[in-house]
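Box S1 | Example of a co-folding query
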Amino acid sequence: MLDVRGLRVEFRTRDGVARAVNGVDLRVAAGETLAVLGESGSGKSVTAQAVMGILDTPPGHITGGEVRFRGRDLLTLPEEQRRRLRGAEMAMIFQDALSALNPVLTVGDQLAEMFLVHRGTSRREARARAVELMDRVRIPAAAQRARDYPHQFSGGMRQRVMIAMALALEPALIIADEPTTALDVTVQAQVMDLLAELRREYAMGLVLITHDLGVVADVADRIAVMYAGRIVEEAPVHDLYKAPAHPYTRGLLDSIPRLDRKGTELDAIRGLPPSLTDIPPGCAFHPRCPRARDECLTDVPPLYAAGEDRGSACHFWRECLHDAG
Ligand code: SF4
Ligand code: MG
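Box S1 (continued) | Returned holo structure for iron/sulfur cluster
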């Protein structure tokens, strides 16, 4: 359904050209959930914005690649058609609902607007469907709360409103960028469960962008791990957890707090992600990699086929798998 190939995005900054996305390939089948995992600055949000066609930060531009969605090449589609596609066929959920929602419209009116504009329903019917949707995302007393403004909702409830907005036109694909990051842990789990449940119910494809490996295990079918604007590992979720084929993924897994290791230090990955204006040569991860050898400093690893339906951009993926198993 979604097929991204060789996507490249650059930003002009005071420090030079930032290569935010450096040749990313992504595929999402209908009804599938793909988690895109990475630290901040790994290029995951920029990838999502490029796919949605909302790369609006002025200096950012797509310098290469293809984004195909249901057979159409989105990068050459006229903006007018692109706009119609957004919401109707693909929708996005952002981390910060408060800035994504219109502060001067009631939540009910914002939802109703979707049906008025895109479906041409009567005002009365649009209102009724707005309340129905709010009920669907389990906002208590939906009919009453439809008259409230976004700031009158708690963070978790506001995130539900944004999920309702995204679902309104029953798109084939939802891209959720850190949808629960701003919420506290208990609410995070509730919102994530709701999103997973609705995804199944509506049989939508979902791209879940997150820095938190902890939230994806139960939700995603596959994971793509990003580092310095590239995908460094891609695998079905259970394979990746069982045996990561890239040292960066290994590091991420080792830094998840686990109950069975209570009292021991967490093994965080040493060092910091590179600046996107100054990506290290060879394997971009080499300054932080416990396995790095000479060739890692010079040879950019391609995404090697590292088993059935999985890939690793590490020259030594075999060793990684061997040591993990
Ligand atoms: Fe580490 Fe080398 Fe593999 Fe990069 S290619 S992850 S530096 S071992
Ligand atoms: Mg981000």
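The chain has a mean pLDDT of 91. DSSP finds twelve helices and twelve strands in the chain.
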